[in-house]
Amino acid sequence: MIIDNDVVDALADTVLGPHDKSVPPAAWGATVREYLAATPELARWQTPLLTLDRAALAANRALMADWTAAAGVALAPHGKTTMAPQLWRDQLAAGAWAITLATAWQAQLARSFGVGRIMLANTLVDPVGLAWAVAESARDDTFEIYCWADSVATVELMDEILRDAPPGPPIRVLVELGGPHGRTGARTRTEARAVAEALRAGERVELAGVAGYEGALAHDRSPAGVAAVRGYLGELAALHTELAAIYPGTAIVTAGGSAYPELVVDELAGLAVPGGSTTVVLRSGAYLIHDDGFYASISPLAAPAADPGLRAGMHGWARVVSRPEPELALLDGGKRDFPFDEGLPVPQLVVGGAPLPSGAVVTALNDQHTFLRLPGAGATELPVGSVVRLGLSHPCTAFDKWRLIPVIDDAAAPRPRVVDLISTYF
């Protein structure tokens, strides 16, 4: 079972109320199922608002499924991007091999929705989380969970913690290789081999492969950045080759965010043995939602680099609440509502068809306000009450601000309709 459909379907029985940001009061007291039955208009919702675009999500999901299948790699999308079981289900149904997560609690949440295979892209040394992983694996022998280790001390601590845990299968651990000035991960192959040997000698841990994250080593498409990523991935491939003789069984080689997936495929896909000893796993998380900012500028799968290419599946909507100066409009959304760590929101259109004043640009966000500068514009060109659609950058820090996100049929339509509501868990 890849996910428990009954548990996911039960989210439609959730009762809407004022605890759901921007949901219209007329919907309070209705279940999600009851509310959606009337195919309500987005215009009935309050601002600020984050929405998802149904067509973009479907297209992005299919594009990545087809691309990874053609490349011969498995896909374990990083679930922390959305923390939305409904979207995880769609990704798994499209062929995803697993769901990747970052903390024991996130893994526990995913397991409560029946996710059957989890890649925990992190070290697991929390005693409570480690004991849970063993107990859950013992309770259901079809459940698979993997975690990472980047030092001998980490492996020894895991083994020590597990000595007091109830009986259960060994925890499958991947050796994490890092890089200079990167994030976590053993800094050299020599150190990484020592971690593998410690796993081989451990009592309740098992060597399961090698892992890493190339996105920590570059943040652009400059020649130096691409070279750093390729060099790192080459080291990861070499480490896997060195460890091939001591794997106790099948092995996993995993890397990949959403910025350099084609480099991961170029450098690692050749290690895969279909139906055999090695599975290469890509862990991209942002592809499903994509964006109008960082990932649109760097992903090789975004249009126009690719055709048809990934496209933004999320938008912000905010209302003009003040025009205190001729060239300034204040919108009612801010840092509490929209992401800003990888670029500020980009004004795209005014609801109702009126064009945005030329040169409109967001220059700052406060907690609940967006500063929209309008060079050369007058107050009549964007009056108080106007609703502006915003392009956003970085889905990871968009979703964590919303417990319930409406999915609309068409973000470009004059009167979009709400066709689903996505629950998130942060």
Structure description:
It is a single chain. The protein is an alpha/beta fold and 426 residues long. It contains twelve helices and 17 strands. Strands 1, 10, 11, 12, 13, 14, 15, 16 and 17 form a nine-stranded mixed sheet that branches. An eight-stranded parallel sheet has the order 2-9-8-7-6-5-4-3. The longest helix has 21 residues.
Gist of the model:
With 426 residues, the protein is of the alpha/beta class. The protein contains twelve helices and 17 strands.
Provide the descriptors you would attach to this structure in a database record:
alpha/beta; 17 strands; eight-stranded parallel beta sheet; single chain; nine-stranded mixed beta sheet; globular; 12 helices; 426 residues
Quickly give the structural class.
Answer: alpha/beta
Number-wise, the strands total 17
Strand content: 15-25%
The radius of gyration computed from the alpha-carbon positions, rounded to a whole number of angstroms, is 23 Å
Shape: globular
Whole-number average pLDDT? 95
Order of helices and strands: HHEHEHEHEHEHEHEHEHEHEEEEEEHEE
Helix content: 25-40%
Number of helices: 12
